[in-house]
Amino acid sequence: MAPATYSASQPSPPLGVKIIYVLAAIGCVLGVVGSLILLSAAPLLGLVTLALTAAQFVTVYGLWHLRSWAWAAGLIVYGLSGLSQLLDLNLIGALVSFLVIGYLLTNRRLFR
Questions:
Q1: What is the pTM of this model?
Q2: Are 23 and 96 in contact (CB under 8 A)?
Q3: Which residues contact 95 (CB under 8 A, 6 or more apart)?
């Protein structure tokens, strides 16, 4: 299958997806930094955090291109991320994750 490219007939991502993309880019950078710090203190937790960050990166790529698989992946990845952030008492990160889930649930039609 050929890689997706934007054309005149293919719509650009809606504003909500663009906002998710920017927030996720920031989250991925912070996730990688946090994972590297955790690797020295708690290697298993650092690897789990790094894997979740990588899954988030792949999911956001799919959301940007409005892929149907990215909708389900987004619910899973951001659900796990939100729960993880709640356990870490990172309330802002958890709020962002749950807002992304809310956006995905209310805009399912974009990812068919």
A1: 0.79
A2: yes
A3: none
